[in-house]
Amino acid sequence: MTNYIGKTIYNRTSRRLGQKLVKNPDHAWVRGAAQIEPIVDPGIFARAQKLLAERRVEIPENEMLLRLRLTLRRRGKLNSRIINTTLGLNHVSAYVKHFGSLRKAYALIGYESPRDCDWIDTREFWAAEQAKLATELAEVLRNDLGLRPELAPDGIGVDVEGRRVVSFLVARRLARRGEDHAAQWKAYRRQISSGLLAVMRLDAANREIEDYVLLPGSLRLGRYVWLSSGSLRRHRGRFTGERGALFAAIKATLAKTTRAALTSSAPPKKRSRSGQPKAKGFGGRRSRCGGTKSHR
């Protein structure tokens, strides 16, 4: 808000290549005084800041937990929506800041969410697996196809000449609704809109990779990718059981795409003139009988 009085502040946040956005401490901020024309008098601004500071109430952590426990007793359950809409409770972000996560705050009041949170605990592990596969594939494409691949900024894909060609996704297996229901998987697609999707489908416990599925880049956009035995045929997906077979399928697809791109970009060949009549080249005139008459 200091820009209202002509001051600017930079470097509040930063992000290294391929890493998460982080908040920088106050001493790392870059401040500039009188950089822009102020629209608020500094005296008025100072008084407003003082009023805001006096209005803010800091609630101790034990009081935050007590209020959370009372809300649980009244509502019977807890989630982000209940916390954010209950009068007197801090925002979810405050509980995350003070206790590390909502799950840790729940544990301190003896509450266990019915939601399966094992996936959250293993998220970093699978993110590392995605980055590992992307690195290995980039090396394969460089050595076998002569491409110049680069790791994507998000760390889970491979780019070639600034264009995303492959992204690695992790699909966790969902609980079956009944014995007669087919197995289903769900993968978070992020904002990826181009390139192949190499999906790691996990086993029933979501602890190990069960198999791999390669999906075309023309797959309909959406935040999530839903997979089942029927959806593979619908999406024209290719099933592979091993990592080597997955890489081979990716190489074959990219090699075909590269050849098609080279063919379409090649200049058109000139027509040969060997089939054209050469009679006019000798200065002759074509007769009615198909021959030529010479001029003396």
Please name the defining characteristics of this protein.
eight-stranded mixed beta sheet, two-stranded antiparallel sheet, 3 domains, 296 residues, disordered C terminus
Condensed summary:
This protein is 35% helix and 19% strand. The chain is an alpha+beta fold and 296 residues long.
Helical fraction: 25-40%
Distance between the termini: 98 Å
Which radius of gyration do the C-alpha atoms yield?
A: 32 Å
* Overall strand count: 14
- Helix-strand sequence: EEEEHHHHHHHEEEEEEEHEHEE
Low-confidence stretches: 279-284, 286-296
Q: What is the number of helical segments per DSSP (H or I, 4+ residues)?
A: 9
Let me know the average pLDDT.
Answer: 82
Strand proportion, as a percent range, falls in 15-25%
Which class of secondary structure composition applies to the elements? alpha+beta
Topology:
Elements: E1 8-10, E2 13-14, E3 22-23, E4 30-32, H1 42-55, H2 61-75, H3 80-85, H4 92-99, H5 102-108, H6 118-121, H7 123-144, E5 149-151, E6 157-160, E7 163-173, E8 185-188, E9 196-202, E10 209-215, E11 224-227, H8 229-234, E12 238-240, H9 243-265, E13 285-286, E14 292-293
Parallel strand pairs: 7-9
Antiparallel strand pairs: 1-4, 2-3, 5-6, 6-7, 7-8, 8-11, 9-10, 10-12, 13-14
